[in-house]
Amino acid sequence: MIIGVPREIKDNEFRVGMTPGGVAEFVAHGHTVLVEKSAGDGSSFHDADYETAGARLVDMAGAVFADAEMIVKVKEPQAPEIEMLRPGQILYTYLHLAPDLPQTEGLVRSGAICIAYETVELGNGSLPLLAPMSEVAGRMAAQVGAAYLQKPNGGRGVLMGGVPGVLPAKVVVLGGGVVGTSAAYIAMGMGADVTIMDINLDRLRYLDEIWGNRIHTLYSSKLNIIRIVKEADLVIGAVLLPGAKTPYLVTRDMLPTMKKGAVLVDVSVDQGGCIETTKPTTHANPTYVVDDVLHYAVANMPGAVPNTSTLALTNATLRYGLAIADKGWKQAVLDDPALAKGVNVLDGKITYRPVAEAHGMEYTPLEELVGYPAVS
Question: Model's pTM, two decimal places?
Fold first, then answer.
C-alpha cells in the first residue's frame, strides 16, 4: 500500500502524522511511504531522518493526496485537504466530527473511508488512540492554567503551590478519565489544592485509593459544581463522551459567581466543550475573557509540544495503521472490533451513530456496508 503523510496545515499545528520510526516499520512491511517535504520539521523530525527511514519525499501535499492510498495525519482535514480526498481513499486521523458539521458534510461528499483515532474503542471502553494525546493535554492543562493564573497573563495572581503561610491555588478538575487524571496529577505535583469530579463512583474510589488525601474527590452533580466553581482559582474541563458532543457542566450563569481572574481551561473543546462559554481558540490567540473569567480553549493543545506528542501518537496508532496497510481496511475492520468503531464515514454514509445524531443526519450501521457484523 502507498501511505501518505502530508504536512499539517491547521493553525499552529506542529505535529506530524508519523515519526521516522513509524515510516521504517511500514517500509519493513513492504509498503511505500510518501512524506511531504518539511512535514516533520515542527516536531524536530527532518527530511533526512525520513529518507534514512525509507520514505520518499515529495514537494507538495497535492502529490501526497494524489498518489497515496491511505493518508495518515494528526488533525482533522482542513477544507483544502477535504477537496483532495477521493472515493475509496483511506483517511486515518483525528476527526472529532460531532461538533463540526462542515467537515462531516465534506467527508461524506468525498466518498473516502474515514477512520477516526478518537473512536477506536477496546472492549473495556478505553480509547487507545485518544489516550496518548489525552495524557499530553491533561498534563499541559495544569501547566497552562498555572501560567495564566499569573497576573501579567490575565489571571488572579495566584501561585499554584502557594508558599508557607499562604494557601495554594484551588483547582477543580471536571472528569476523572485520562485527561482529568493527568491534569490532577500535575496540579497535585505543583502543590495545588485539587478536587476531581466525576459521576462514576468506582472511578472516584480508585482515585481516592491511589492518591488518598493528596486530592479531594467529589460527585459531579449540578449543585456540587455550582458550589465548587465559586471557590476555584482554576477549573479544568476534562469530560469526554466518545465521538459525541460534550455536555455543558459549567453554564453561562455560573461565571458571575466565580472569582475575578479565575481561569477556565476546557480540554473538551474539540468535542464542543464542557463549559458553555467555550469557543475554540488557537495557540496564536489562545485566551479570551467572559465575565472577568479567563478562558483557554485551544483545540490542539498537544501541538505545542509536538516532539513528545508525535512520538506518543505514533506509538499508539502504528499497530492499527499497519493492520490497515497489511490486510486492507475492510479485512482489518472485520478482524478487529475496536478498529471497526473507528470508521466514522464510509462510501458517503455516516457509520458512527453519535456523529449522525449530533447533526441530525442519517446513520448507516457499518455492518450493512461491509457485509458482516464487524462491530461487537
Answer: 0.87
